[in-house]
Amino acid sequence: MIFLVKLAVGLCRGLSLIGAVAVVLMMLHVSLDVVLLNLFRLSMNTTPEIVARYYMVAVAFLPLGWLTLRNQMIAVELLDFAMSRPVRLVSDFVIYVIAAGVYAVMTYANWLKALREAKSGAYVELVSVQMPVWHSYFLVPAGFALATLACVLMALAILSVSIGQTLKTTTESDET
């Protein structure tokens, strides 16, 4: 189990790093396009498509697992202040299980879409160039798959904490 957790953390961290690199590359790419356009009246026609089809997809989907493992996803906690710790743990567990299910369905659907796009060799037609974009479709299921794994691990962590606390409480009450 520890190996699986370390593997998941490493994979999630790696994909997040790729997402961070995509942010930097996007900034450099767009800046270069602006400089070339303003100084030399040269335009890289592929910039908007590369930004939309590669950089933004990587930035949006690859860090999902890492954010989940770090518990940094956006959350609305309207009633958490009123819940006891055990009830909050149950609530968090149910949320992670539901999120894992949703992510798994999205992984499957986007994987099928990526396979269809790869098979058809999807491309974007620009002025005089056909730019292949089918590879970018695989970034989405990769991000969702690791988010699924992260949710499952978080749910198991809550479950192990709950079981550990229950065992501790049970053994303490048996001793008295």
UniProtKB/TrEMBL annotation:
Keywords: Cell inner membrane, Cell membrane, Membrane, Transmembrane, Transmembrane helix, Transport. It comes from the Bacteria. The keyword Ligase does not apply. The keyword rRNA-binding does not apply. It is a multi-pass membrane protein. The chain crosses the membrane at residues 7-30, 50-69, 89-111, 137-159. It is found in: Cell inner membrane. Signal peptide: none annotated. Belongs to the TRAP transporter small permease family. Part of the tripartite ATP-independent periplasmic (TRAP) transport system. This is TRAP transporter small permease protein. It comes from Roseinatronobacter alkalisoli.
